[in-house]
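User: what does the whole thing look like in 3D?
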Amino acid sequence: MTATATLVKRSYYADSVALLALARDLRSHPGVIEAAALMATPANRALLAQSDLLTPEAETAGPNDLVIAIMAEDPARASLARARAEELLGARERRQEQAGRRAPRTLASARRQLPGADLALISVPGAWAAAEARKALRLGLHVMLFSDNVPVEDEVALKRLAARRGLLLMGPDCGTAYLGGAPLGFANAVPRGRVGVVAASGTGLQQVATLLAARGEGISEAIGVGGRDMGAEVGGLMTLRALDALEADAATEIVVVIGKPPAPAVREAVEAKLGALGKPAVVALLGRDVKARHDGRIITVTNLEDACLATIAALAGAAWSPRAFSLPPAEVRRRVEAARRGLRPGPSAILGLYAGGTLAHEAALILEPLLGPVLTNLSPAAAGPGSTGGRHRVLDLGAGEYTVGRAHPMLDPTARVQAIAGAAAEGEVAVLLLDVVLGHGAAADPAGDIAPALEAARGRELAVIASVIGTEADPQGLARQTERLERAGAWVLPSNAQAARAAACVARGEAVMEQLLAEMRP
Amino acid sequence: MTTRAAETRLVHVQRLAAGAARRLEAAPRALGRVHSVFERAVNILCHDGCLLTLHGPGSLAAPFAAAVDRLPPSGVLAPGMAVERMGERLVLDGRAIDWRGAEVVETALAAAGDGSALAAALLAASLPAGAAALRSPAALDAQRRLAGGLRRGDARGFADGALRLIGLGEGLTPAGDDCLVGALAVVHRFRRGLLAAHPGVPREIAAAAREGTTVVAREFLLHALEGRFSEAVIALASAGTEAAARDALADLLAMGATSGADTAVGMRLGLEALGA
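Assistant: Here's the predicted 3D structure for the full assembly of 798 residues, as structure tokens:
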């Protein structure tokens, strides 16, 4: 009985000569009937299917993935040939590595290899992260501390050390930054520009940066400070230092501050610093009690899209007022009515399934005034008293309880796919609300990863509303990802804030929509 | 850093595709990232989603290429490394690639009426086998449709064949894509009106290329749809004499494992369809 074996190497590029040699080698292996080493384009997957070489694993591969497919006389020989393929590819990689420099094993040796480096990105388990960050600071390096689970007392000590040495300590749990034009961590491909950002939120920064990019504006510098920086214990140590840095930066013409509401003492210090900044500022510290206002050169906004729009307007010297949707009201009504017609009778609850924590927080803040209590798994400070119950739920799937034993949902769709299937089956949910985050570091095809589950949910008469946080220059391509979601039946809006409002309209209908349109009428 | 060490990190671009030169002039500082690294070429995925290929001295192997005096040693560069543009230099991994003084090479293929030298050389040549996938039933069917469309002046028929070739076969640039690039060279040289009169057809082929093949092959196809090709293809398609065409064909066949041969197959297919 013949057997097939497959090896898929994601985003793997070998030249044609190497691929042909590999396939030839495998065909000469004992018991191998056929072997192919092909880029997994749709046409090549069809070819493999015609030759009975297309396995379920190969079906998941895309045009930039290498598929090695082997048919052998029996499973044991197929498995041996697969091992041989792995050995050949491994040998090729080792040759390449040996031809270049050896990977450094310590920060000091990395510094010797790259003497001009001025920043260390640290991503090690939390227990060791502080020690590595301290070493980097003592080497005179700015630090982006990607690691989480760093004790707050270590964070304070590290930030004090950084401040004494005139360095930045970004983090812990700092997912995104742009320094000197280099995107760091989970970051979108956005242009350089005039907007300097201080962000206590990675996905918040991504949303603002991509919306700015869509309007032709870019980032001068974006400094991540870590989610706890503006809390009472850390006291805004790095936020204040980052504001100093942006004030001194000639390319920065306006400053945007993104995060959650600070501790009262930190709020005073940040407001004082912003007031003396000498540059206009837009403040998006998203919380339940925050009200939009314009105070001299400081504009306070209540959501991330407004942060972008207020920034663009301030740069142009133009007036700005919030808006509910970028589509005309008549078109919004048409889309909402169409979505409502597809719902099953009865359920009207919204389930938000988020990869971005700040995006989930923002969605909950927008939904609660429109729909009443929203249950979240976000921190109590972020949610508020009404958030302990309610039919509507917004879940941050990047929270610890969903990432045990698996990667963050920006990389691994498993938790979200399971939750979508669960929602479709349980009968309470009418509207699924989602974010899809693109950029360097994110999954290769995040929309494609969840699309089959969404199609199944649509089959169960659920409305799917989404936003895509990305740009056309991102590796995944904004248009391509949007189109994939739309093909799966999703209504894709240009921002998370608009998506949350659309979800409320679809769940509750005309009354909510008219309320929104009236509230935001200029 | 000593002067000697600095020099080893400075690479000069000798020749640069005109389109790439224009894009570099307008590029932001954060140009992009290293996409893929091979022994003889490095691909950079730029901020605008397009590729820039760096390879060693000689003719430009792609209409989006820069020929440098020497590539960094294999293994030094790795996918994902950031590439910055600083003035007229690219900076990656502490290395500067300077394009000041580079010869800017036009890679657009001019239209012409007389293809006799090309036809004489290409139709008489015994082409190497090329990629096996181009002889598969699916590929042969696609080639028949492509040639039939070209023969009849039927842009839709041409597109039908083209869409079936995209992403088909062996190689980092799948053989079907190479073949289609060759056929497009013939179309741009001798039947430009076929696509110009039906702008929806190149748009449809471009959309299929964006979805259905590798990043590198996509780039070749998108340029080919706009009439831009490697210097080897341009030299062959524009050869004024049979001897010049034979020399250019030899250069083309030397490209890649089978890419050059697969491109030549596409050019011959196009010429035969046009009754050359």
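In plain terms: The first helix of chain A runs from residue 16 to 27. Residues 223 and 245 of chain A are 9 Å apart (CA to CA).
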